[in-house]
Design brief:
Blueprint (H helix, E strand, L loop, with lengths): L2 E8 L3 E2 L5 E2 L2 E8 L9 E5 L25 E2 L4 E2 L4 E5 L31 H14 L5 E7 L1 H12 L4 E7 L7 H15 L20 H14 L2 H8 L17 H16 L2 H12 L10 H6 L4 E7 L7 H13 L4 E6 L7 H4 L5 H7 L2
Parallel strand pairs: 5-8, 5-9, 6-7, 9-10, 10-11, 11-12
Antiparallel strand pairs: 1-4, 2-3, 4-8
Amino acid sequence: MKLEKKVAHFTTPLYLESGRILEPYKISYETYGELNADASNVILICHALSGSAHAAGFHEGDRKAGWWNELIGDDKAIDTNKHFVISTNVIGSCFGSTGPMDNNYPTPNPYRLKFPVLTIKDMIKAQKQLLSQLGIHHLKAIIGGSMGGMQALQFAVDYPNFADRIISLAATYATQPWTIAFNKVAIEAIRRDPRFKNGQYEREAFKENGLDGLAIGRIAGHISYLSPHSMDDKFGRNYVNNDGLFELFGRYEVERYMEYNTDNFSKLFDPLSYLYIVKAINTFNLSRGYDSLYDAILRIKAETTLISFKSDYLFFPHEMEHIDKMMKRNNQPSSYYEIESKYGHDAFLVEIEKFSKIIKEKLK
């Protein structure tokens, strides 16, 4: 599989939904496979909250492959022998695209809290600018899970003639209070951490020791991504061997897992980026800018595939099913699949074998 990593720079202003402007800005992206002569084989991949453009393959020195490596590659469901796959990093992130710790041009100082609030609409608008710069004006498919699934659906509504197929996994038509409440734990944990300094920390301030507030917030996130069944299967009531049962801070295996994963995460992910992206997720609503959700959904022309997971307690299956029912009533091309899974929301990253055949079939 041919893999290329690039950064595109833009000097034209990006007009945001808030009324503010982002100028200049850059987008980090990766491509897999080869573009065909008439550019008819392009698939756009959209990532989730903590994701990046690195969706597949290995870079030099990598210990882990891209986050959807089982799905994207030669002879895989998203076959890079046939398709030219583009995976972008959303604006606001900390993995190469313009975010709050980038310089607030023309000053040499980071935006920090002066960075504009972004929405999912803004993210896809920036991606569309990237594709235009690459000379790509139509897509075979747009595919994403979680926040990536939101982006795919937003593309379908805002740019109805842009893609032939939309495949959205583990997403929703609008973020619900339950999910916003989980996100609030992370927001407040970050804001109240003294080392956060109201966003006035230095670049790479948390590279060595992480930020406790982000680690704590990420624990809440992890709980929402998993399910009771997956925790039972993975950890049971097993206790850490080295910890005494009657030590106050002795831990069960599930506690050690949360500590290890979230501590590492807080060293890698910028807390301001986390706050801005969570805000975009919280404000996601397909109906915003249209008279109603019905009117928004009615705009969709692409063949739409909606995939949910039975044990997803972040974006419940009935939320995706609701979109499918609306589309079917309108005689719009839609198919809905509810996948049996014990892995909760994370199933779209973990149990790829359960839906890869669906995606492969839809891309034929």
